[in-house]
Design goal:
Layout: E1 5-9, E2 12-13, H1 20-35, E3 43-46, H2 48-56, H3 65-80, E4 93-98, E5 109-113, H4 119-127, H5 130-149, H6 153-167, H7 177-195, H8 203-217, H9 221-230, E6 239-244, E7 255-260, E8 272-277, H10 281-286, E9 292-293, H11 296-302, H12 309-312, H13 314-331, E10 335-342, E11 345-353, H14 358-370, H15 376-381, H16 389-392, E12 395-396, E13 404-407, E14 409-412, E15 415-421, H17 424-432, E16 437-441, H18 449-454, E17 457-460, H19 468-476, E18 480-482, E19 488-490, E20 495-498, E21 501-504, E22 508-512, E23 517-520, E24 525-526, H20 532-544, E25 548-552, H21 556-564, E26 570-574, H22 582-593, H23 597-622, E27 627-630, H24 644-654, H25 658-668, H26 680-685, H27 687-708, E28 714-718, H28 724-745, E29 752-757, H29 760-764, H30 766-772, E30 775-778, H31 780-788, H32 796-804, H33 821-835, E31 840-843, H34 851-859, E32 864-867, H35 872-891
Parallel strand pairs: 15-16, 16-17, 17-18, 25-26, 25-32, 26-27, 27-28, 28-29, 29-30, 30-31, 31-32
Antiparallel strand pairs: 1-2, 1-3, 3-6, 4-5, 4-6, 7-8, 7-10, 8-9, 10-11, 12-24, 13-23, 14-18, 15-22, 19-20, 20-21, 22-23
Bound molecules: phosphoenolpyruvate and magnesium ion (MG).
Magnesium ion binds at residues 719, 758, 779, 781-782.
């Protein structure tokens, strides 16, 4: 016989906190509190298995449930000295949802159930207050009819408002007992008119109606949307908690409140809460009355002159402090509790781990460890790696109003305010006079890099999470919203419009790159400090971490940030980014425009010293840590001007005819540039470019050794490889450059050469490639693009639909597609290792900074991940968590911890 119902109360419970899957979060914690002997109103939980049954059988309940509920109700009645349906001493109950994962406010609740035309008078006698009893009854009719009979809330609100109007009253508090009696009658008529039957008077009918409604609310649109956003499986279902009502609105010795056992904003170890005298829980939430502080310290801090619970109800407060302490010690975490005081007696209605800011989470985890409550590894596991973003970028003050005008993709976190500009030049010009800008583009290209540097933030109308704008902005640590499709940008007019709002050049906007929001005007910001706890926790994380964490960095500024955040080297230096500088791009253009090898060599001769200086600086900053330098990757046309005006300007600067540039642009134009003349193919066609870059690397390494005595071991990486012969051909150029520099300087530099695995073919042939390559680095941006045949720059227009329709679990450019791309990575790792046991394996696509993808890398035992500098702390923490979990799985392969 399946057990469908679990009772609790009076110091005992049939369930426990370990039964969250079956009893839901609320039910399992109520059971736990009851077992601890805490004052919990007695009740019972109907399991999530009943929910599953209900959905599998068109809303029917399993056999035996009615009897089990009847028995449980009898038990609650015995504990409270009341009877369900008893006319003299009626047992009133609340019926609440409670899923295995917290879904606040998404499902239905019914309070005061059991009230009818008779028991309402019994309640009036118990409370000594008929006004209260009739107010409770009308609330019940409204709540019940809404959730169980489908009568709209507004029907009741309308009726109440017109009643008040005819009586010339404006506030609910002005209504007396007679008014509420009349309103009850009006509400009952309303129900009969709308639902076609009188309001049910039989408490059992009410109860089954409410239970069915709560199970039904698992599938209301709100709950479905919430589950989708928070990735809560459909199959979990909700439990239903039926509990004896306690009333916080029975006069001045009654109250209701919520509290956190530590401060959820700062993490300070101090009780933090609010309560309302003579009120029900919903009054606190409704915000109609201003709650009072729980502790005296909080009251003083807030400057309130209304008494705290500590002074207004000293005895209850003392009990409450004891309960809060006990709960925190028992759960070994900060708790968020709900309580009610009925006639001077404290009742606990809920406990759960409290939500907190990242700063608070860090402080709480560190202090709980220092207090001996949890261990270091547990502290490390308690922090959501992605949440560290909050500490690494300026953020919009949570209390500031934000008039959002458009939504795009949250491409790079942080918030920024500035004047709208539409060109890189305008951003630079504003910066030169000390003004801030937001660069607004349909999409960005390498030509915009200097403007992206100069702007405070970047907003684009097109492009996905790995579009140029997104990748570059993340690398720079700049806030970016991309793919805000509602934006209509008119460069010629110097404006963009969205809906019926128009923003001109110079108008101020704010973007929130963490939320993907475009906001009108300036918004208040705050930059949370990197507190001491942050550093302590990161140190603990590093103690558990197995994988190295490197950064994708090329500019000195990026490299410094990367080191500050604890990067253990550079995993990807995109050398093309070094040429976008205004002074250099012309030398690059000369090289591209050259008509023969001689001309190309001459131009490369100009670029060589620049590259060498770049590497000297980069090696110096990275102080002997590994640095992976990738040979030039993008299609050459990206370096050439596009519009007629730009072509004319460049022609003038270079002293060549415009037609020549235009012709070369046309020659280089490709239908499919992402699959075109880029990556290793450039080195094959123009070996002198690769030679120049390799020479610059080796000369820089010698120079750094001579100048600073620092030993550098460069790792040179060849992009977009598809086969070993191709890799070998380019490797030969690098080896020759190394030998030449050694011969010239008399000093040889230790180095390795590796391949980027960015094509399915490279993954399949990794065994052969690894015979020549000392390392393989998974470029999962391109590998995702090539494996799924999804353009990383354009897929945004339809990818969202795939995700909302459940056709893909998420954006594969954000979190690695484990089943597809992941399998290629696993296969390449296996084949690579089989060919060369010590082949070094890393991941340097955007996924290298994504916690879930990092966990996947740990399962393959990769050697390192590499990500943009601002994600380095996130990657360090995620890698540590993955290692801790992997260790736990090895020790206990059966029960793998599931995070909720
Ligand atoms: C990649 O493709 O994953 C990669 C790191 O290279 P890029 O983003 O520069 O193409
Ligand atoms: Mg790539």
């Amino acid at each position: 016989m399946v057990k469908w119902v679990y009772g609790f109360g009076d110091g005992r419970a049939e369930g426990s906190r370990a039964m969250g899957d079956l009893l839901g979060g609320k039910g399992s914690n109520l059971a736990e509190m009851a077992s601890l002997g805490l004052p919990v109103p007695p009740g019972f939980t109907i399991t999530t298995e009943v929910c599953a049954y209900y959905y599998a059988h068109e809303g029917a309940f399993p056999e035996g449930l009615k009897e089990a509920v009847g028995e449980a109700l009898g038990h609650v009645g015995a504990l409270t000295g009341r009877g369900f349906g008893d006319e003299e001493r009626p047992l009133l109950v609340s019926v609440r949802s409670g899923a295995p994962a917290s879904m606040p406010g998404m499902m239905d609740t019914v309070l005061n159930l059991g009230l009818n035309d008779v028991s309402v008078d019994a309640l009036a006698r118990r409370a000594g207050d008929a006004r209260f009893a009739y107010d409770s009854y009308r609330r019940f009719i409204q709540m019940y009819s809404n959730v169980a009979l489908g009568v709209g809330h507004y029907d009741f609100e309308d009726a109440l408002e017109s009643y008040k109007e005819t009586k010339g009253l404006s506030l609910d508090t002005e209504l007396d007992e007679a008014d509420w009696r009349k309103i009850v009658a009006i509400f009952k008529e309303k129900v009969e008119a709308c639902a076609g039957a009188p309001f049910p008077q039989d408490p059992r009918e009410q109860l089954w109606g409410a239970i069915g409604a709560v199970f039904g609310s698992w599938n209301n649109p709100r709950a479905i949307a919430y589950r989708r956003i928070h990735q809560i499986p459909e199959s979990w279902g909700t439990a239903v908690n039926v509990q004896a009502m306690v009333f916080g609105n029975m006069g001045t010795t009654s109250a209701t409140g919520v509290a956190f056992t530590r401060n959820p904003s700062t993490g300070e170890k101090a009780l933090f809460g609010e309560f309302l005298v003579n009120a029900q829980g919903e009054d606190v939430v409704a915000g109609l009355r201003t709650p009072q502080s729980v502790t005296e310290a909080e009251r003083l801090a807030s400057g309130s002159d209304r008494p705290s619970m500590e002074t207004a109800m000293p005895e209850v407060f003392k009990t409450f402090v004891g309960v809060a302490d006990m709960l925190e010690r028992h759960y070994r975490d900060m708790q968020d509790v709900e309580f009610t005081v009925e006639n001077g007696k404290l009742w606990m209605l809920q406990t759960r781990s409290g939500k907190r800011t990242t700063a608070a989470a860090l402080r709480i985890a560190v202090e709980l460890t220092q207090e001996g409550v949890i261990g270091r590894e547990e502290a490390v596991l308690r922090i959501d790696p992605a949440s560290l973003d909050q500490l690494l970028h300026p953020a919009i003050n949570p209390n500031a109003p934000r008039p959002v005008v458009a939504i795009g993709l949250p491409a790079s976190p942080g918030a920024a305010t500035g004047e709208v500009v539409f060109t890189a030049e305008a951003a630079e010009q504003l910066r030169s006079i000390g003004r801030k800008s937001i660069l607004v583009r349909v999409e960005t290209s390498p030509d915009d890099i200097h403007g992206m540097h100069a702007a405070e933030g970047i907003l684009t109308a097109r492009g996905g999470m790995t579009s140029h704008a997104a990748v570059v902005a993340r690398g720079m640590g700049k806030p970016c919203v991309c793919g805000a499709a509602a934006l209509r940008i008119d460069y010629a007019e110097g404006l963009f419009s969205v809906g019926d709002e128009t923003f001109r050049k110079g108008d101020v906007i704010t973007i929130d790159g963490g939320a993907g929001q475009v906001i009108k005007g300036e918004v208040r910001m705050s930059r949370p400090e990197l507190t001491g706890e942050f550093a302590i926790l990161m140190k603990w994380a590093d103690e558990s971490r197995r994988m190295e964490v490197r950064a994708n960095a090329e500019t000195p500024q990026d490299a410094r940030v990367a080191r500050k955040f604890g990067a253990e080297g550079v995993g990807l230096c995109r050398t093309e980014h070094m040429f976008y500088d205004l002074q250099r791009i012309n030398a690059m253009r000369e090289m591209i425009l050259a008509e023969n090898v001689k001309g190309r060599r001459a131009a490369l001769g100009k670029l060589l010293p620049m590259q060498r200086e770049d590497f000297i600086e980069l090696f110096g900053i990275m102080a002997g840590l590994p640095v992976t330098i990738r040979l030039l990757d993008p299609p050459l046309h990206e370096f050439l001007p596009q519009t007629t005006q730009e072509v004319a300007e460049v022609a003038k600067a270079l002293g060549v005819p415009s037609e020549k540039i235009a012709r070369r642009v046309a020659e280089l134009r490709e239908v499919n540039p992402m699959l075109g003349f880029r990556g290793v193919r450039l080195a094959v066609a123009y070996p002198e470019i690769a030679r120049m870059q390799a020479r610059a690397v080796f000369e820089a390494a010698v120079e750094v050794k001579n100048r600073a005595g620092m030993l550098v071991q460069p790792e040179i990486m060849i992009p977009l490889v598809i086969a070993r012969p191709e890799f070998d051909a380019v490797r030969r150029l690098i080896d020759e450059a190394a030998a030449a520099v050694a011969a010239e300087t008399g000093q040889s530099v230790p180095y390795t050469v590796g391949a980027m695995v960015e094509t399915p073919r490279a993954a399949l042939r990794a065994g052969e490639i690894a015979q020549s390559a000392e390392f393989l680095s998974f470029g999962t941006n391109d590998l995702t693009q090539t494996c799924l045949a999804l353009s990383r720059d354009d897929a945004g227009s339809f990818l969202g639909r795939y995700v909302t329709a459940g056709l893909l679990p998420g954006d594969p450019f954000v979190t690695i597609d484990v089943e597809g791309v992941g399998e290629l990575v696993a296969l390449a790792a296996e084949r690579g290792r089989a060919a060369r046991a010590d082949v070094k394996l890393g991941m340097c696509g955007e996924h290298g900074g994504d916690p879930q993808s990092i966990a996947f890398c740990e399962t393959l035992k990769l050697d390192y991940v590499s990500c943009s500098p601002f994600r380095v702390p996130i990657a360090r923490l995620a890698a540590a968590q993955a290692a801790i979990r992997a260790k736990a799985r090895e020790l206990n392969p059966v029960s793998t911890p599931v995070d909720r």
